Amino acid sequence: MSNKIIDFNLTVYELCTADPGIIPILAKAGFTDITKPGMLATAGRFMTIPKGAAFKKLDLENIKLIFEKHGYTVKEEKK
User: Label partner for 14 (CA 20 to 30 A): which of 41, 50, 53, 69?
Assistant: First the structure.
């Protein structure tokens, strides 16, 4: 399995532009609005995955697990 890195410090727009395969994973993780036309180009330009998870009240740890199951390594800034 290839080891892809997803940087949670980047915006959703930046991530999905670099790797469009992220869009269905985000939808599966609870970000269903990401598939709506225009959402990626509007909210996605300033929203990061952690900010979006907080806004939609989604469990960030579960989102990380979903990405890991799809072969991604999650990179995030430690606070």
Answer: 69
Contact predicate 18/5, CB 8 Å: no
Cα 51 from chain centre: 10
CA distance 75 to 36: 26
What is the model's pTM?
0.91
Structural contact between residues 76 and 50, judged by C-beta atoms closer than 8 angstroms: yes
Residue 48 tokens read as 């990061």
Nearest to 64 by CA among 78, 49, 51: 49
Backbone phi and psi for residue 32, each to the nearest 5 degrees, phi listed first: -65, -25
Let me know: does 75 contact 6? Beta carbons within 8 Å. Answer: yes
Sketch out the chain's domains with CATH numbers: 4-75 (1.10.3910.10)
